[in-house]
Write a structure and sequence with these properties.
It comes from Xylaria grammica. This is Carboxylic ester hydrolase. Keywords: Hydrolase. This protein has 18 helices and 14 strands. The chain is α/β, with parallel strands linked by helices. It has one domain: Alpha/Beta hydrolase fold, catalytic domain (Rossmann fold), CATH 3.40.50. Strand 9 (about 230-240), helix 8 (about 240-250) and strand 10 (about 260-265) form a beta-alpha-beta unit. The protein is globular, with a radius of gyration of 22 Å. The protein starts with a helix and ends in a 17-residue tail after the last helix.
């Protein structure tokens, strides 16, 4: 592990902070440390939440705060249950990761020296302790003697194919963003795979999405105590998290809570959804493997204390592969499932878009110029070496055309909509070369969080730091005023005709420009995509 990463991980432990301040040349004295600590206490009506200085030390962090009752025992596979925030809470360490089976490390050809570290932090190969008692969140806010002026809130939903992932990673640490833009940053865990998307006909299909909604309810109810404005919450998701954020306007149309949404590399059209019948068959397979059969008592049996979460995960591995429609990716057996309540079929989403039957929230969609630069790793790890034409179609279908379709209809319905494409290929974040991994899936998140050095162990270049500043300012402007903040920075609202697609990091510089989306969307009509409409200009 690079020295920077060692420093970062230890700095997350409050007990090491003074040691590091001395040994790394930090300027904070113990007196200053104690002064800052006094500002790291959040007081609600019934609770005092004790935090501590973060990295940088101008920011307070509160880690591992429960936002719902532990989903254990009879609450396994149940809807999240609201729990009161009471008494003194020492929020000094991350909560447990939700149960999952992380992918194994893979030596990709021509990998860079930083590849293994970046990949592990992105896909959660960090050996964090797992538990079903995992519904916790984390908050970062710049220190202040007064919290009367409430700040915009940015809440992240991590990716991971609805199967894996965590908020406990340098990838989503909120300290740098909170310090740079004076916003409150929140990250949280939610149930995934069979625990979040069980497929059982006896319970809700998409519990993981309801966990996310419960977390946002908690943020709305309590974030003012941390300096955040409950009326200005923006949720941001990456990959499957982006699909969840995109879906928010449909699933929670009547009470979305949030003021704005931002999707990084994914939306409602990007990834395959499970049919309810197939999800139920996969559930019954796991239940039968564990001796619970397929009867009216199956759910009660699966909640037995004699069945551990690890044994459930082991049984999930025996589920037959789910048929997919693309050679570039596999389909998880337990993930977002069509239930016509929280998740809809592709034709239903198209219908809702055409009739504007969704919450008209301000929305930004962004994806990378070379999304497949990441997906090629998992494909080769599974023994699939694909021709370039397959990857070209994958990038168009899952990202370019998916974004074009949804942003077209959102903007046509009058919802403030913005569309962007990330172009940069920084050396310190590169996964392999040659050929370069390019502007791959997820890499732009490092620009928003400002964590590229924490993630890669290599300091950013001057131009990379400048682009980080540009993107952090833009994301903070959106959070402060989702409808108009980006326009104040010269970003046009998206429209399919004319120049309205914002490109970030052009030619791997700090340059931002605006171009016509048709230069990328022109290939979409010929792909015969189920979500494409002839009305969409291309």
């Amino acid at each position: 592990m690079a020295p920077t990463s060692q420093w970062f991980y230890k700095a997350l432990d409050y007990n090491y902070l003074m040691y590091l301040s001395f040994n790394e040349g930090c300027s904070a004295s113990r007196d200053n440390e104690l002064t800052i600590s006094r500002y790291c206490i959040a007081r609600t009506t019934d609770a005092r939440v004790n935090g501590h200085p973060s990295v940088p030390d101008s920011v307070c962090e509160w880690l591992g705060i429960p936002y719902a009752s532990p989903p254990t025992g009879q609450l396994r596979f149940a809807l999240p249950v609201k729990s009161p925030l009471k008494g003194p809470i020492n929020a000094d360490h991350y909560g447990f990761d939700c149960p999952q089976t992380p992918s194994s490390p893979f030596a990709y050809p021509n990998a860079t020296s930083q590849y293994a570290g970046i990949y592990a932090k992105f896909v959660n190969q960090l050996n964090n302790t797992q538990s079903e008692d995992c519904l916790t969140l984390n908050v970062w806010s710049r220190t202040s003697a007064s919290r009367r002026i409430l700040k915009p809130v940015i809440a992240w939903i991590h990716g991971g194919r609805f199967s894996a992932g965590s908020s406990h990673t340098p990838f989503y640490h909120g300290g740098n963003l909170a310090a740079a833009q004076d916003v409150v940053v929140v990250t949280f865990n939610f149930r995934m795979n069979i625990f979040g998307f069980p497929g059982s006909p006896q319970t809700a299909r998409n519990i993981g999405f309801l966990d996310q909604y419960r977390a946002v309810e908690w943020i709305h109810d309590h974030i003012a105590a941390f300096g955040g404005d409950p009326g200005r919450i923006t949720i941001i998701g990456q990959s499957s998290g982006a699909a969840a954020v995109s879906n928010w306007a449909y699933a929670f149309k009547d009470n979305p809570i949030v003021a704005g949404t931002m999707s990084h590399s994914g939306n409602i059209f990007s990834f395959p959804l499970l049919d309810a019948n197939l999800a139920a068959a996969n559930w019954n397979h796991v239940a039968s493997t564990l001796g619970c059969g397929a009867s009216s008592s199956t759910l009660a049996c699966m909640r037995s204390e004699n069945i551990s979460f690890q044994s459930i995960l082991n049984a999930v591995r025996t589920v037959p592969p789910v048929p997919g429609n693309s050679p570039t990716r596999s389909v998880s057996p337990f993930q977002a499932t069509v239930d016509n309540t929280t998740v809809f079929s592709v034709p239903a989403y198209v219908s809702r878009l055409r009739s504007a039957a969704f919450a008209p929230l301000p929305h930004l969609q962004i994806h990378g110029d070379h999304e497949s630069g990441f997906y090629r790793i998992s494909a080769l790890a599974q023994g699939r070496s694909l021709p370039e034409r397959d990857w070209v179609r994958f990038e168009l279908e899952s990202f370019t055309c998916a974004a074009a379709a949804e942003t077209y209809w959102r903007s046509r319905a009058g919802a403030p909509t913005f569309r962007a494409r990330y172009m940069a290929d920084w050396e310190n974040l590169r996964l392999y070369d040659p050929p370069s991994s390019g502007a791959y899936h997820g890499v732009e998140v490092n620009m928003v969080t400002g964590n590229s050095e924490f993630v890669s162990g290599i300091a950013p270049s001057r131009r990379e730091s400048e682009l980080t500043g540009v993107m952090q300012a833009a994301w903070a402007a959106f959070a402060a005023d989702p409808a108009g903040g980006l326009r104040g920075l010269g970003w046009p609202r998206y429209q399919a005709s004319g120049e309205a697609l914002v490109r970030l990091g052009v030619h791997t510089t700090q340059v931002v420009d605006v171009v016509s989306s048709r230069m990328y969307d022109h290939a979409c009509p010929a792909l015969n995509l189920s979500f494409w409409d002839v009305l969409i200009p291309s």
